[in-house]
Amino acid sequence: MKCKLINHMKNFSHLWAGVLIVAIIAIAITFTGPSLVQNTRIGLEFKGGYEILYKVESLNSKVLDKSLLLQEAQALESQANTLGISEPEVRIEGTDQIRVLLAGITNGDEIRSVLNKSNNIPVKITEQYSQTVGGVLGASDLHDTVFAGIVALSITFVLLILLYRIKGFIAIFTLIVYLWLLLLAFNLLHATLSLAAIVAFVLGVGVAAGSNIIFFERIKEEFRADSLPTQALKDSYASSLRTIFDSNVTIIIGTIVLFAMGIGPIRGFALTMTLSILVSFISNVFLARLLMNLFFLHKYNTIEIEDKRIIKSPDLPMGLDIQKNRNIFLLAASLVLIVGIGSIAFSPFNYDIDFKAGTALDVTLPTSIDQEHATSVMEDAGIPPATVAVGGKNSNQIAARFDDVLTHEQVATVVDAFKNEYGGGVAYVENTSDPSVAQQLAIKAIIAILLSLGAMFIFIALRFNWRMATAATIGIIFVGLFVLCVFSVFKLEIDVTFIAAMLTIIGYAANEVVVVFDRIRENTILANGENPADTMNQSIKQVFTRSIYTVSIVVIGSACLYFFGAEPLQMFSLAIFVGLLTGTFVSICVAPAIWSYLSSIKQGPSTYKA
Q1: Per-residue DSSP letters for 330-346?
Q2: Which residues pair with 132 in a beta bridge?
Q3: How far apart are CA 37 and CA 369, in angstroms?
Q4: What is the location of CATH 3.30.70.330 in the chain?
Q5: How much is the average pLDDT of 341-352?
Q6: What is the residue-wise DSSP string for 3-33?
Q7: pLDDT level of residue 302 (50, 70, 90 thresholds)
Q8: E-assigned strands of 203-325?
Q9: Can you tell me the mean pLDDT for 341-351?
Q10: Residue ranges matching CATH 1.20.1640.10 in the chain
Q11: Contacts of 361 (CB under 8 A, 6+ apart)
Q12: Where are the alpha helices (DSSP H) in 528-590?
C-alpha cells in the first residue's frame, strides 16, 4: 500500500512538472510572440524597394584586395543612408560582388546617382543586376504567403491529432515552440524574413513534424514487441534519435552548400532551413521526449489501449515485394529517365531571366487582362516583349520577358503605359541581368548541386557504407533528373528559386533514403545476414507508414504554397511537390533495389551485409 502511494505521488509530481513546463513556455510565447513578429526584419519583396548587384574591380592591380571590397561596401552603405534609409542591407558576395538592398525606395535614377558617386576608393563598380519591387505587390505577396502558411499549419495540426490522438497534441505544442524559437533566432541574428525564408518556415514545419512522426511510430513498434512502457519510450527515443540525426544532416549539407556558394537571392532560404533543423532538434526531439515522459510514462498502458487500432503492424500495399520486383522498379525508372532526357536534349529549358541576359517585368493589374491586349500595350509603348504570359487568380498578372537589357527609363515607360490605362493600382517587379551574371549563376547552381551530392555521398558512406552511399546517390540523382524532365516536357519556367527547390528535393530524398537504409542496417545486424530479401522487405514495411505520413505533411505545405502563396513561388512549390513524391518512391522502391544488386556482387556468406 505504501509503495503504491509513493508511486502515485511520483506520477502526480511528474504530471504537474509537465503542466508547469508547458505553462511557462506558453506564457513566454504569449508575451513575446507579438513583439518578435513586429520586430522581425521584412524583406524587400514585401515592403517594395530596389536591389542592385555590383561587380567590383581594382583600379591599381589585377587582384581585388579584400580590404578594398570591404571599404567599398561600407561606403555604399554610408551613401545609401543619405537616401533616408536607416538600415540598408549591403552584403559582400563572393570575391568581387556587392549586393545592395534598399527597402522602400523605387526611384532607380536617384539611387544610381547617389551610389555611383566617387568615394576616393581605388575601385570601379559596374551594375550587373537590378530589381525593382512595387510596395503594393510586395504587401500582396506577403499576405498570400502567410495565408498559405497558416492553411498548411492548420491541416498539419488536424492530421497529427487524427493520426496520434493525445500524442498529437504534444506534436502540435512542440511545433508552435519550433515556430517561436525560429522567430527568436531571426530577431537575435537580425536576419531578414524574405519570401524564400517564409517558404523555408513552411517546409521546416514538415521537417519538425517528421521528427515527431519518427518518434511516435517507433513507440508503436516497441509496443508491438510487447515492451514495457518505460523501456518502450527509452528504446524508441534512442533509435529514433539516430535516424533523425542522420536524415536531417543530409538536408543541412545541401543548405550549407547553398549558403556557402553565396547565391544571393536564396541565401535566406538556406539560412532559414538550417536554423529550422537545428531548432527542431530542441523543440520536436528533446522537448517532445521530455513531455512524453512527464505526461504519459506513468499511464502509457491507457494510451496503448486507446491507440490499439493504429498500433497493429502495417502491411505494404498489395503485398509489395521490393526484392522480387526490383527489376520492374529499375526498368520503370530507367524508361522514365530516357523519355525525360530525350526531351531535355531536343527541347531547351524555359529559363527565367535569372539564367539568361535581359529584363523580366512582372506587372499586376487591378483588373483582368488577356495576353493579346497586354502585348499590344507594350508594343504601343514602343518596347515589344519577347514573350508574354498572363496568369494569377484573376488573370491580372503579366509576366513579360525582354531579350535586351532595358534601361530604367524603358521600364518606367512600360509601367506608365499600364498605369495610364488601369490607374494607380498597378504594381510591378523588374529584374535585369547581364550575360555575365546569368552565366555565373548557372555555374554556381551546377557547382552547388554537385558539391551537395558529393558531401551527401561521403556522409552516408561514413555513417553506413559505400554500397548504401552509392545506391542513395543514384536514387537522389534520379529524383533530380525526374524533376528536370517534368519541367522540360511541360515547358515550366526555371528561375533562381529552382536552385533552392532542387537542393531541397535532394536533401529530402536523401532524408527518406537514409531512414530506410538505417532500418535495413539495423535489421541486417539483428538477422546476422540471414534471409537478406526478407530483411529488406521487413525493413521497408516498418518504415513505410512513417514515410507516407512525413511526405504527406511536407507535400501539404508545398501544395498550399502553390495554390494560396505568392505567384513567384508557384514553380518552386511545384518542383518541391513533384520531387517529394518521386523521392518517396525512390526511397522505398529504387534505392533499396540498387543496394541489393550492389550487395549481391560481394561473394560469400556476408552477401547483403549492411
Answers
A1: HHHHHHHHHHHHHHHHH
A2: 50, 430
A3: 36
A4: 358-433
A5: 79
A6: HHHHHHHHHHHHHHHHHHHHHHHHHHHHHHH
A7: very low
A8: none
A9: 80
A10: 144-311, 322-351+437-601
A11: 385, 398, 399, 400, 401, 402, 406, 411, 414, 415, 428, 429, 430, 431
A12: 532-564, 570-585
Mean pLDDT: which of 264-273, 441-450, 509-518 is highest? 509-518
Residue 50 in 3-state DSSP?
strand
β-pairing, 350-351 vs 493-494, is: parallel
Q: Of the candidates 484, 485, 121, 540, which has an alpha carbon nearest to the alpha carbon of residue 319? A: 540
Instruction: Give the distance between the most distant pair of CA atoms in the chain.
Output: 94
Integer Cα distance of 542 and 224 in angstroms: 11
Contact between 57 and 124 (Cβ < 8 Å): yes
Beta bridge partners of 350: 493
Residue 335, pLDDT above cutoff 90: no
DSSP state of 282: I
- State the residue for C-alpha cell 538536408: 251
Does residue 298 carry a pLDDT above 60? no
Cβ-based burial of 604 (10 A; exposed 0-12, middle 13-18, buried ≥19): exposed
Residue 469: pLDDT band with limits 50, 70, 90: very high
Strand partners, 550: none
Give percent above pLDDT 90 in the chain: 14
Angle at 185 between CA 183 and CA 187, to 5 degrees: 70
Measured at the alpha carbon of residue 398, what is the angle toward residues 575 and 360, in degrees to the nearest 5?
A: 75
Burial 538-548 (b: 16+ CB within 10 A, else e): ebbbbbbbbbe
Fold category of 358-433 in CATH: Alpha-Beta Plaits (3.30.70)
- Asked whether the predicted pLDDT for residue 310 surpasses 60, the reply is no
Q: Give the CATH H-level superfamily of domain 322-351+437-601.
A: Multidrug efflux transporter AcrB transmembrane domain (1.20.1640.10)
Say what the pLDDT of residue 554 is. Answer: 82
C-alpha cell at 341: 532526357
Domain 44-133: give its CATH code: 3.30.70.3400
Average pLDDT of the chain, as a whole number: 79
Helices (H), 356-434: 371-380, 408-422
Fold entry, domain 144-311: Multidrug efflux transporter AcrB transmembrane fold (1.20.1640)
Nearest partner of 183 among 193, 169, 168, 172, judged by Cα: 193
User: pLDDT at position 134, please?
Assistant: 60
- In this prediction, residue 157 carries a pLDDT of 92
The one-letter code for the residue type at 420 is: N
Question: Residue 177 pLDDT more than 90?
Answer: yes
* C-alpha neighbours within 13 Å on the C-beta side of residue 30: 6
| Residue from 317, 310, 410, 308 nearest 359 by CA | 410
| Percentages (nearest 5) of helix, strand, coil residues in the chain | 70, 10, 20
Q: Which residues contact 391 (CB under 8 A, 6 or more apart)?
A: 397, 399, 567
Query: For the chain, where do the domains classified as CATH 3.30.70.3400 start and end?
Result: 44-133
Q: 188-209 pLDDT, tens per residue?
A: 988 777 767 777 777 788 888 8
Integer Cα distance of 188 and 399 in angstroms: 37
Cα separation, 470 vs 476, whole angstroms = 10
Can you give the C-alpha Rg of the chain in angstroms? 27
Amino acid 458: pLDDT? 92
